[in-house]
Amino acid sequence: MTTQTETRSGVATGTLARLRARNPYLNGLLSPRGITGLIIVGLLALAGLLAPALADFAPTAQSDQALHSPGGAHPLGTDEVGRDLFSRVLHGIRNDLAIILIAVPVAALAGSLLALLATASRAADAVVQRFFDLVLAFPGLILALAITAIMGPGFLPVVIVIALAETPGFGRVLRAGILVQREREYAVAARVGGAGRARVLIRHVLPNAVDPLIVQLAISLPVAVFIEGAMSFLGVGVRPPEPTLGSVLSQSMPYLSSHPWYAAAPLITVTGLVLGFTLIAEALNKGVRR
Amino acid sequence: MSAYLLRRVPSALLVLLLASFVIFLILRLIPGDPATTLAGPDAPPGTVEAIRAQLGLDQPVLTQYLDWLGSLLTGDLGPSYTIGGDVAELIGNGFGATVELAVGALLLVVALGLALGILGATARSRPVRAAVRILTTTALSVPPFVTGVVLVLTFAVALRWLPAGGHLSVLEAPDLGAQYLLLPSVCLSLPSAAVLGRYLKDGLERALDEDYVRTATALGVSRRRIVWRHALPNALPPAVTVLGMQTGHLLGGAILVEAIFAWPGLGQLAQQGVVLRDYPVVQALLLLLVAVFVATQLLTDIAYAWLDPRIRW
C-alpha cells in the first residue's frame, strides 16, 4: 500500500503526480474508471448546457410531423405530437441537471446540519437518528407519492423528494465521522489544551470528518437521476410539456413496438448519465480506500 | 418464543397506530377542500355543505380520525372521492395483482440471490466470477425503468416471446398469466437480488474461512456438502435480514414496475389516487403499506431468531 504511493511519487515528478499522491480523491478520479465517468458526464452536461444553441427547435414546440423517423431536420425523430426529440433529450438533460444540482447540495447541507445537531447532545441524537430511520425505512417512491399528494406534481416536489430521500445518507456519514474523529488523540489533546467545544469542532474535528461526504455526494447523483425518472414514470414528476430524461422515456413507452427508435435516445442518455455518475462515485471510493 | 412474540407484537401495533394518526393528520393539512372539489365549480353553496356533512367533514378532526379507525376495523372504508367505487373494493381489486407481482419477484430474488451469492463465493473460474460481479453491479446501478424498457424492447418487441405489458391472473390462467408475470417480476427482482447476492457472497466467504470448514475438509467432506450443509446455514441469518429489508423496497419498486408494465395493482391505484387527489384511497393505501412493512419486519425478526438458535428471547 505505502510502497505503491511511494513508487508513484518517485517515478512521476510532475505537479499533477505530486498532487495525486497527496490527494486520494484526485488519485481515484484520475483512474481509467474515473476518467471514463468524467468524460461521459462532461459530454452530457455540455450538451445539456448548450441545449438552446444546439437544438433548432424549442423542446415544447409541436408540429404536424408526429412520430417522424430520425433523419433530416429531426436527427432523433419527433414524438407523438411532433416535438423534436433531439431538442427534448438535450433540454431533458438540462432539466435533470438543474434538479440534481439543487436537490443534492440541499440534502448535503441539511444532512450535515442534522449531523452537527445529533453530535451536540444525546437527546438530539435520538431524535435525529429516528428521523433518519423513518425516511430510510419508507421506500423512496412511497415518499414521492406522499409528498406529491400534498403538493401536487411539479419541479419543486421532485427537488424536495430527492433532497429528503438523500438527507439521511449525508447525515449518517458526517455523524459517524465526527464521532470517530473527536475521540482521536489530536482532538482530545486540543480539548486538554484548553480549546473550547466549538473551536475543537470547527478547527480540528470537522476538517477531518468531511472527507467521506465527497464520496456520498458522488453516490447521491445517480440516485437523484433515478428518483427523477421514477417520478416521471409515475406521472408525478415535472409537469408536462417540460421535458426531463425520465418523462421523455416514459412518454415513449406506448410506442415501443411501433416506433422503437423513439425510446432509444432517452434510454441511452439516461443510462449514460447514471453510468457516468456511478463510475465517478466508484473511482472516488476506490481512491479513498487505497 | 411466545414471550418474544408478546413483546414484539404490541410494539408493532403501536407503531401502526402512530403511523395511522400521522397519515390521517398530514392528509388533513393539505390545502383544498374535498367537498368543494366533489361538488364541482358551479355548485350552489348548499350542496357543498351537504357533501361535507355526508362525508363527516364537518366533525372535529379527532372525531373524524376515530371514525376512520372504526371503519378500518370493520373493513368498510366508504366511497372514494374521485376514482369512483368503494375504497375497500378498489383496494381489494388491486391487491391480488400486486401480491402476484410481489410473490413472483420475491421468488426470483431468492433464487437469483442464492445463485449469485453461491457462485460469487465458490466459483473457481475467473470468467464466472467476473460475470457474477458485472451482473450484480449492473443490476444495482441501472434504474428499474431502464431495465424495464430494455426487457420490453428485447423480449416483447424484438423476439416477440412475451407480452409487453398488461395482466392476467396466474390463478385463472396459469400458462398465459405466467407469461404476463415474467418480465415485470424480473424487472422488480433484479436490484434486490443483487443486494441479497452481495450479502450472501460476503457471508459465505467469511463462513468458508472458518475452522469448522477446514476440519470438515480435512475429514474428507465433499466441497458441495461443505457449502450447503456447513457454510450456507451460517451465512443465512444476515441474508434473511437483508431479504426482509428488501421486501419493503420491493413494495416501493412495485409501484414503478406496475407503471412501466401497465400492471393494474395497488401501485397504479396509489398513483391514480395521488394524481386525482382521492384522499380516502391514498390514506388507506399508505396505512396498508406501513402495515405490510411493519409485519415484514416482525416476520424477519422471527425468522432470524428461528434460523439462529444462538439468539435468545
Automatic annotation (TrEMBL), chain A:
Show the CDD domains listed in the entry. TM_PBP2 (cd06261)
Q: Which residues cross the membrane?
A: 35-55, 97-120, 213-236, 261-284
Q: Which Pfam families match?
A: BPD_transp_1
> How is it placed in the membrane, per its record?
Multi-pass membrane protein
InterPro entries found in the cross-reference section: BP-dependent_transpt_permease, MetI-like, MetI-like_sf
For the ABC transmembrane type-1 domain, which residue ranges apply?
93-281
Chief subcellular location: membrane
Q: Where in the cell is it found?
A: Cell membrane
For this entry, the protein name equals ABC transporter permease
The species this protein belongs to is: Streptomyces litchfieldiae
| Lineage, highest ranks first | Bacteria, Bacillati, Actinomycetota, Actinomycetes, Kitasatosporales
TrEMBL record, chain B:
Query: Which species is listed as the source?
Result: Streptomyces litchfieldiae
Describe its membrane topology: Multi-pass membrane protein
The entry's keywords: Cell membrane, Membrane, Transmembrane, Transmembrane helix, Transport
Protein name per its UniProtKB record? ABC transporter permease
Spell out where the chain crosses the membrane: 12-30, 101-122, 134-158, 178-200, 239-264, 284-307
Which PANTHER family does the record match to this protein? Answer: DIPEPTIDE TRANSPORT SYSTEM PERMEASE PROTEIN DPPB-RELATED
Q: Where in the cell is it found?
A: Cell membrane
Membership in a protein family = Belongs to the binding-protein-dependent transport system permease family.
Q: What is its main location?
A: membrane
Ranges for domain ABC transmembrane type-1: 95-300
SUPFAM superfamilies, alphabetically? MetI-like (SSF161098)
Domain of life from the UniProt record: Bacteria
Which CDD domains does UniProt cross-reference here?
Answer: TM_PBP2
